[in-house]
Specification:
The complex is a heterodimer of chains A (152) and B (532). Chain A is an all-alpha fold. Chain A has helices at residues 12-25, 40-50, 54-67, 77-89, 93-106, 110-115, 139-142. In chain A, 34% of the residues are buried. Helices cover 23% and strands 17% of the residues of chain B. In chain B, the strands form 3 sheets. In chain B, strands 1, 2, 5, 6, 7, 8 and 16 form a 7-stranded mixed sheet that branches. A 6-stranded antiparallel sheet of chain B has the order 4-10-11-12-9-15, with helices on one face. In chain B, strands 3-14-13 form a 3-stranded mixed sheet. In chain B, helix 1 runs parallel beside helix 7. The chains are: A mainly alpha (152), B alpha/beta (532).
């Protein structure tokens, strides 16, 4: 069941457009065993996340509609693909907005994180391990001697 | 009516905290007014699964995006570099990376050595004891023996080199170029009530572990125990003068929005390189119609940022990725002047890590390396945990046209005129940025990177706010004297990055705090005749 709601500040049509765009950006992959960004859970997250920036979302969807001759969500597969490509290549700051919106929700999904060999958890409080490294690598730097200029 | 105080400090960030702690041993009545709140480490992004998303919103560096209760708007339309700050107890140290380099001795003598800008009225030797005191108070990790600096004492072992640092260290060695583990305000051991670093990454959006030294957890607990009063959510509107030409006190809005007057014997401004000139320019009177302490006309002028280049190498094998403090190591191979490069002065390279999964996607998609569509996943996996970053911090020279003024329209929540920035990246800085990208590309290639992504300047990188009320001996060419006192108003002091004469090519926090301690000590030494 897709989470397209009537009480969301985006209209159903705008939600459908955003969902199509999300799925085209990051589609599901059987090879990597990951859902697409139009997956029910991930898209629900996108819909929640977009609320404070709904104005920008509307602008992006308006631009997509223009590029698709007025109806992005209702367009043919070819028209949708072409509009998406032209949107991405437009250089509009709205592309950056869409990147941030979709990526932040997609790459915090448990299934996606696990597919990247990440533990699905916050960094704090466990933290992470990092190799100390080999400080003998500094030996040639130490051998240089002072390299700062002395004041007059 | 508030009881008068002896010393009023405006701003509880890097410099205000250091001065408050230093002055506390005088037993004077010291009050600090801070417009923001105490930060709550339990709210920092790394406490949650959405840490990268929250870093882009409520823990964004940019106050215009963040819009916290303590923030004020800034008109930065006429600046290619956007402001990065934090308004609250701890100030910019809450959201900084914690890189803690000092200036070099030569940085105080740029006119004499390189024929540009002006010499400082103080030198490295003047600040050296205060750098050392500050290192102790902030708890700095690092390694003694860096040939780029005069000898200095290390306190805690350096942050780990990790896979990222090891790979790049070998490349620097192959090229015969300097590198050294960064002096870092990240505790690698338990220190003064702070727990050691556990490699959360994401240092630039608040350290949930408390390992990173922000002044809310370093200086302030000590200063408050010593009797300093810190009042939060108190935004100062203006400094008020008396008939004798001295600062009598300040008008501020308390947390209920009620206008208050606070009388004081001494005012110390510690509100950063934008907030301080804003307050001075908002403090007009018949004697100072162009802003307080502005007889030189230099309040707000000579704004310096440090234009940053950002260079990212993409490797075939995993590096540290999202794990570990962003600080790793620095290189000052190109720091001192070499006129054969086509410019004078120089820059520091700082190696960074800590790109999480979301930022990896944004970096790759933004540079066109990670496509939309079916190939997204393959390309993403070729980038995730395989990015190593480096920035070039270029010395910004002072120019009169780069300035902070008051916006004629924009105001904050209390109706106080907001600052407006006019800033142009000079051709000189552009040469340095280009040089840094070319050299960083060489380093990444030597390290085996299969791809290099570069941008300059970092648009969002206006972390360092300097030069807008500079120090000097001549009242006609400077705003404060060589120990931080206003030339015009003898009980007004400035201790933040505003007083910088030049910016050097390093992060400024260590020097800002050393200056704050030095000015505080100068005040203590002159208490009997402070206003002479």
């Amino acid at each position: 069941m897709t989470t397209i709601t009537s009480d969301h500040p985006l209209t159903r049509e705008q939600q459908r457009a955003l969902k199509i765009l999300s799925g085209l950006m990051i589609p599901a992959s059987p090879e990597y065993q990951v859902p697409g960004a139009d997956d029910e859970l991930i898209f629900s997250d996108i819909l929640r996340t977009v609320i404070p920036q709904q104005q920008l979302a509307r602008l992006a969807i308006d631009q997509l509609n223009k590029l698709a001759n007025g109806d992005f969500a209702g367009g043919t597969s070819t028209a949708v693909q072409q509009a998406t490509q032209r949107f991405r290549e437009s250089g509009s700051p709205l592309v950056g907005f869409v990147h941030a919106l979709v990526a932040q929700c997609y790459y915090r999904d448990d299934r996606v994180m696990k597919s990247l060999d990440m533990e699905p958890r916050a960094p704090f409080p466990q933290g992470f391990d990092v190799d100390e490294g080999d400080w003998s690598l500094l030996d040639p730097v130490r051998a240089r001697g002072p390299m700062y200029r002395s004041p007059p | 009516m508030n009881d008068p105080v002896d010393v009023l400090i405006i701003g509880a960030g890097a410099s205000g905290a250091a001065a408050a702690w230093s002055l506390a041993d005088t037993r004077m009545r010291i009050l600090c007014l801070e417009q923001g709140e105490w930060p709550d480490p339990a709210q920092y992004p790394t406490n949650g699964r959405d840490w990268e998303a929250r870093a882009m919103e409520e823990y964004s560096w940019n106050p215009n995006r963040r819009q916290n209760i303590g923030d004020y708007p800034i008109n930065e339309d006429a600046s290619p570099i956007k402001i990065a700050n934090y308004n609250g107890v701890g100030g910019g140290t809450v959201l900084y990376a914690g890189h803690f380099p000092r200036f070099h001795p030569a940085d105080f003598h740029v006119r004499t050595l390189d024929g540009v800008a002006e010499d400082w009225p103080i030198d490295y030797a003047t600040l050296e004891p205060w750098y050392a005191t500050n290192d102790r108070m902030m708890g700095i990790s690092g390694l003694a023996g860096d040939p780029a600096y005069p000898p200095k004492t290390a306190m805690m072992k350096p942050v780990p080199l990790g896979k990222t640092g090891t790979r790049l260290a070998k490349a620097f060695n192959e090229l015969g170029w300097h590198w050294w583990p960064s002096d870092s305000a990240v505790a690698t051991e338990d220190y003064d009530g702070r727990a050691r670093c556990i490699n959360l990454g994401h240092c630039l959006h608040g350290c949930a572990q408390g390992a990173k030294a922000s002044t809310d957890i370093t200086y302030w607990p000590h200063a408050i125990r010593a009797g300093v009063e810190l009042r939060t959510r108190c935004r100062v509107r203006e400094i008020v003068m008396n008939e004798s030409g001295m600062a009598a006190g300040v008008v501020y809005y308390d947390r209920e929005g009620k206008e208050q007057f606070q009388a004081t014997e001494v005012v110390i401004l510690a509100s950063n390189g934008v907030g301080t000139p804003r307050l001075l320019l908002n403090s007009t009177s018949s004697r100072f119609p162009d802003g307080l302490a502005n007889s030189s006309g230099l309040v707000g002028r000579n704004l310096m940022f440090h234009p940053y280049s950002s260079i990212v190498g993409v490797f075939d094998d995993p590096v540290d990725g999202y794990r570990g403090p962003s600080n790793t190591m620095w290189s000052q191979e190109f720091y001192e002047t070499d006129r054969r490069r086509g410019y004078v002065r120089g820059y520091t390279f700082e190696v960074s890590r800590g790109r999480g999964p979301v930022v990896t996607a944004l970096t790759g998609m933004g540079h066109g390396r990670i496509p939309w569509g079916a190939d997204h996943h393959r390309a993403y996996r070729e980038h995730f945990n395989r990015l190593a970053g480096m920035v070039g911090i270029c010395e910004d020279l002072p120019e009169l046209h780069n300035r902070v003024t008051l916006d004629p329209i924009l105001k904050d929540a209390h109706g106080i005129p907001a600052p407006r920035l006019n800033y142009v990246i000079s051709d000189h800085s552009r040469l340095m940025l280009e040089h840094s990208i070319a050299r960083a590309t060489e380093i990444f290639k030597a390290a085996g990177a299969r791809d290099v992504l570069a941008e300059a300047p970092i648009t969002a990188g206006g972390w360092h706010l300097m030069g807008t009320a500079r120090m000097g001996k001549d009242p006609q060419t400077s705003v404060v004297n060589e120990w931080g006192r206003s030339h015009d108003v003898k009980n007004l002091f400035i201790i933040d990055g505003s007083v910088f004469v030049t910016s050097a090519g390093v992060n400024p926090t260590s020097t800002i705090q050393a200056i704050a301690l030095y000015v505080a000590d100068s005040i203590k030494r002159r208490l009997a005749n402070l206003f002479d």
